[in-house]
Design a protein that fits this description.
Fumarate Reductase Cytochrome B subunit; mainly alpha; 5 helices
């Protein structure tokens, strides 16, 4: 029978770099999602277009670009460095669900800011705090911008739902199954 200390050393964790990229992404998305909802509420629902609303939109654009670049870095890192093996106690269907969730998150973490960038290019709303302009990636077309922003919002909602599933699964594994799924990302929680 193996001891807890032996189990802790045999469970492979994500590298420090992978963990740092993960948690920075978490922090940025945790800021971005509620800020996006609030900016749309102020601008579209309340029709308040003051400095605060402008700052929310400008900040949302910058954080969206940061998320996109960070996730692209994460993908390059993941493809070149790999990931630790799956938790050995997982059933095959759980491994499949986990991989589908992770790759779905990556897909939406790229597609959501890309759709937003297409929307601001179409609108065009490329100015950032009056300091500089982002390069447009498509020709301006305000009618099409509405569609791009609707796609952006639908993707963002899908992203939040997948994040909820991801967090719920991690907590289920930690508190109910009592395995090391969460310990792979938070090493001090390994059992």
């Amino acid at each position: 029978m193996s001891t807890a200390a032996e189990n802790r050393t045999t469970i492979k964790t994500y590298s420090r770099t992978a963990r740092a990229l993960h948690w920075v992404t978490v922090a940025l998305v945790a800021i971005q999602a509620p800020a996006g909802v609030y900016m749309v509420y102020r601008g579209k629902t309340l029709d308040i277009w003051d400095k605060l609303t402008g700052a929310l939109y400008n900040g949302h654009k910058l954080v969206g670009i940061a998320i996109l670049l960070l996730v692209l870095w994460r993908l390059v890192y993941r493809f070149t460095r790999g990931a630790p093996p799956d938790e050995p106690t997982l059933e095959p269907w759980q491994k499949l669900a986990s991989h589908a969730n992770h790759w779905g998150l990556y897909l939406l973490l790229v597609a959501t800011p890309v759709a937003g960038y297409v929307g601001i290019s179409l609108f065009p709303a490329l100015d950032i705090f009056g300091l500089f302009k982002l390069p447009g990636i498509v020709a301006p077309d305000k009618a099409a911008a509405g569609t791009a922003f609707a796609v952006h919002m639908a993707l963002a909602i899908g992203l939040v739902l997948l994040i909820g599933m991801h967090v719920a699964a991690a907590l289920f594994h930690y508190f109910v199954r009592k395995d090391n799924v969460l310990g792979r990302m938070i090493p001090r929680l390994r059992r």
